[in-house]
Specification:
Elements lengths: L1 H19 L4 H16 L3 H19 L6 H13 L9 H8 L9
Helix pairs in contact: 1-2, 2-3, 3-4, 4-5
Amino acid sequence: MTKEAEDLGMQALKIREKIQGNTHSFTLTSMDNLAWTLRLQGRHHEACILMNRCAQLSTETLGIDHPITRPHLWALTILENKDECSTCFRRKEFKEAFGKDCHENRG
């Protein structure tokens, strides 16, 4: 079932990127959903790369306080806190949005 979800998620993302562009909020949401699907398949590194891209695009185009950006930053941090990502997204942006360091809850 997750392979089918991945295929549908990839299709949705490609269509949204083509029609709405890669910085539209619906496109970013599709990107976020696909990243979680990849994570559920155990493809943590790929999920983190995609979520990192999503968080960066969202922050750059919509701003850090936008209601679409904050969940993407939070989701990326959840992946990173599970040591599934090799690099952290901009700690400054996370701290600005949530008032704490993204690695504060590790342990």
